[in-house]
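Hey team,

Filing this mostly as a record. A colleague (T.K.) asked me to run one chain through the structure pipeline before their review meeting, and I want the input and output archived in the tracker in case anyone asks later how it was produced. No errors, nothing strange. Just documentation.

Input sequence:
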Amino acid sequence: MPPLSTSLSTLSGLRIHGVQTGGVTLKSAHYRLRRPSAFRLPAILLDPHWTSPKPILSWVIEHPEGLIVVDTGERHQAQDLNRYLAGADPVTRMFIRRNFRLHVEASAELGAQLPRLGLCARDVRWVILTHLHFDHADGLAFFPEAEVLVSRREYDAQRRVPQGAVFSLWPEGLTPSLIDYSSGAYSVFPKHWPLTQAGDVLLVPTPGHSYGHQSVLILDHDVTYFLAGDVVFDEGQLQRREIGGIVQDVGVSRASLELVRHFVLTHPTVFLPSHDPTSLERLANRQVTHLEERHG
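Output structure:
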């Protein structure tokens, strides 16, 4: 997919860039949970139907305290999954090869797009990974001098039993900083972790899609920009209370979805999932998500 980006200046003076680093095509059963949860993995493996290509989005925040990247996107080499996944564990390699189609041009890689935004990868202070799935973490090689932030729960569990994480693709010797979420509640979230001294960029735990998935909130006067990773795949799923078919834990994923819905219902929020074809448009228009307050 061709390079695409959108930029917005917030009312508080930050600059947010949404960058499409390519696309991914998924099994339909991967995108939406339709079968009983116990059969979700066989349903994905056996599904003959594929979605239309979905964007792989990264986010770049120009902040006075330093340049921030949220998720690093994919690399061009991922189009040849046989060679790209040579160092992955056999189960992860088999699952990705059978259930993903990657579309990433070299010009779409995040490292190639930053200069077109007037930015330099070596100036990035923090890289926040919402989770360790390959399409969110494989661009780490572009940021050798940044501090990489991952939730401890995500990192430890993926090390024990990888589910979509391919550590062999990380830069050699990389040691991420692990977030323990020792701070107290923020709004509806029982814990949070403030990234900036100004308190305007926060991390909140939103597990379920993966072991320790986390989301990033950018607070801007009357709205919050909610970088949602894969809590859901698109805004419509948030509207319909619909989770993806690939979630690591269905019950935990539903609980995170309800927390996010409660937040969006009670705070004007520009909601930005990482694979939503309309996320860049919502960012550009500062478009707040409106939900119906339904039950059940």
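Quick notes for T.K.: The first helix runs from residue 28 to 31. The mean pLDDT is 94.
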